[in-house]
Automatic annotation (TrEMBL):
This is Inner membrane protein YbaL, KefB/KefC family. GO terms for biological process: potassium ion transport; proton transmembrane transport. It is found in: Membrane. Its main location: membrane. GO terms for cellular component: membrane. It comes from uncultured Phycisphaerae bacterium.
């Protein structure tokens, strides 16, 4: 029997091509997103061989968009943004404005409309969450102050993307296509449509966040009590897809926006963690189809047909955006290293760019060339970004060879911390007691500081969070604002310090800091927090005296708790914990 199954064959081809090319890109230490986009190109109409059903792929990709935005809303935590709001909010808005203006300039220069340029610029303004988190994690910067600023910046970009989802239909000049609300005509129509859209948006947000925040969590908890994994997963899907579809049908909003708000509401429920765990595999599977469908629309001949447009687009993504971010972060008063990390981390585009592109194409705001440009820029920038990010250290050292430029980039940071650092210097001058310098004032740093001070050892804290430094200074405590990995920041404290305690778990500049600190004060003992036993050799080589390994201490702590629970005497517990510490140390030393 002869079967015509375009849906099955398209899904099979998309998943298979994405699987193969995803493995290849992963082995090359690139983001799998590059592989998924290449898979779409391979099964698209612009390359020889099998051609998937583009319409079916795009419909499946719509589910990918819904689940992607649902996941963003589910993991949206205002607290992550509030911690770095003073740099992330103005920074993301300023950089997005620069990218949008550059997009308009490029569009007009290459014969497109200003409206096309607005959509193009906004799509180029937003970086990929997946790529940014991956790059920061690979370079051990996710848990650093630099990483926190970059992630907070990305959260603001995500929020701006949600706002843009409302604005794009108001910019549209073409009749609606299937699945999208009608576009307005003329200036009056645009303004009227925008006003109506904002009113509808307000009503939708009010209903979802006020009424929905009571109903949806209540439903989720009741279903969870049935103890049926299948029903709970189905409930998560209903919340994501039904709310997204209802947002479009009832309020005329994009389904992506509805999915984001649904995720925010579900995230408030007591079972949000389980909802995230159940939604993740489905989101990842449909996200693959989303990226593949984006690749299917790409014409590989575009870079050769429009090299000027291609270079201009890459210039916005990989030069204009990073330079804007670098300048904004430095002007706000963060150290040059933070500015470099944020600038390079954001020098790429990804999933949200394609979501905006799809909506722009639906309202005929952008044509095939603009879409081809976004896909090409994404492939190049995502591929190059991990390699580019490895230049943070060399770029920093290169800038330091130009003292005037380095001081200029750090001028605002120095001025920002000048007053509190001077006060710290005066406090240190009045005392001749032994001193411990604590780098980082997170939960670990706070615990170390409390124990040392209770035991009578004077401490000085070095941190990049100005609010933390000011609070300590207000209490009469010596605290230094700045990047501890710039040894000049700690010149007041290191010469008389007896101990240096580095509580930050990861940093590419941790080893140079240890070596430089030893040169300033050879008699000072350096205690370092590290995550993995495998880091022992390099830390000891640069001069660390004592290293506390998280994976070792966690195993020891768990074993101690079990032994005490079993009624073991303190001597036995002490003997066994000492033995396992020695064993772990010997195993690492023999590697």
């Amino acid at each position: 029997m002869d079967h015509d199954l375009p849906l099955i064959t398209t899904i099979a081809a998309a998943f298979t091509a994405a699987w193969v090319l995803g493995i290849v890109t992963q082995r090359l230490r690139l983001s799998p997103i590059v592989g998924y986009l290449l898979a779409g190109i391979a099964i698209g109409p612009h390359t020889p061989g099998f051609v998937g059903d583009l319409k079916l792929a795009q419909q499946l990709a719509e589910l990918g968009v819904i689940l992607l935005m649902f996941g963003v809303g589910l993991h949206f935590h205002p607290g992550d943004l509030l911690a770095v709001r003073k740099v992330a909010v103005p920074g993301a808005i300023g950089q997005s404005l620069v990218a949008t203006l550059l997009g308009v300039a490029v569009a007009v220069a290459f014969g497109m409309s200003a409206r096309s340029g607005i959509v193009l610029g906004m799509a180029m303004a937003v970086a990929s969450t997946v790529v940014l988190i991956r790059v920061l994690t690979d370079n051990r910067m996710l848990d650093t102050p630099h990483g926190h600023v970059a992630v907070g910046w990305l959260i603001v970009e995500d929020i701006l993307t949600v706002v843009v989802l409302v604005l794009i239909p108001a910019l549209g000049t073409a009749p609606a296509v299937e699945g999208h609300a009608p576009a307005p005509q003329g200036v009056t129509g645009v303004l009227l449509s925008l006003g109506i859209a904002l009113l509808k948006l307000g009503a939708m947000v009010a209903i979802l966040l006020l009424a929905g925040s009571r109903v949806i969590p209540w439903v989720m908890v009741r279903v969870a009590r049935l103890r049926s994994r299948e029903l709970f997963t189905l409930t998560v899907l209903v919340m994501a897809i039904a709310v997204a579809a209802g947002s479009y049908k009832v309020f005329g909003a994009s389904m992506a926006l509805g999915a984001f708000l649904a995720g925010m509401v579900v995230g408030q429920s007591p079972v949000s963690q389980q909802a995230a765990a159940d939604a993740l595999p489905l989101r990842d599977a449909f996200a693959v189809l989303f990226f593949t469908s984006v690749g299917m629309l790409f014409d590989p001949a575009f870079p050769f047909r429009e090299p000027g447009l291609m270079l201009a687009g890459l210039g916005i993504v990989m030069v204009g955006k990073p330079l804007a971010a670098l300048a904004i972060v430095a002007v706000i008063g963060y150290p040059a290293r933070t500015a470099l990390v944020v600038a390079l981390a954001l020098a790429q585009i990804g999933e949200f760019s394609f979501i905006l592109s799809d909506l722009g194409r639906a309202y005929q705001l952008i044509g095939p060339d603009a879409h081809n440009l976004l896909v090409a820029c994404a492939i190049v920038s995502i591929t190059v970004n991990p390699l580019l990010f490895r230049l943070v250290g060399p770029a920093e050292r290169g800038l330091q060879r130009w003292p005037a430029l380095w001081r200029f980039l750090n001028r605002r940071a120095a001025a920002r911390g000048g007053q509190v650092n001077e006060q710290a210097g005066r406090v240190l001058e009045r005392s001749a007691e032994p001193l411990a310098v604590i780098v980082g004032y997170g939960p670990v740093g706070q615990a170390v500081d409390s124990i040392l001070r209770t035991s009578g050892l004077e401490t000085v804290v070095v941190d990049l969070n100005m609010d933390t430094v000011r609070a300590l200074t207000k209490d009469g405590r010596p605290a230094i604002y700045g990047d501890a990995f710039n040894i000049e920041v700690m010149h007041q404290a290191l010469p008389r310090a007896t101990h240096l305690v580095i509580t930050l778990p990861h940093s590419t500049n941790r080893n140079p800091l240890i070596a430089a600190a030893k040169l300033v004060n050879p008699d000072m003992k350096i205690f370092v927090r590290a995550r993995y036993l495998a880091e022992r050799a390099e830390l000891e080589q640069v001069g660390a005296d004592v290293v506390a390994y998280e994976e070792a201490e966690a195993s020891v702590a768990l074993a101690r708790l079990v032994l005490f629970d079993r009624g073991a005497d303190p001597d036995t517990v002490r003997r066994e914990t000492t033995r396992i510490r020695q064993q772990l140390g010997a195993e690492v030393g023999s590697r």
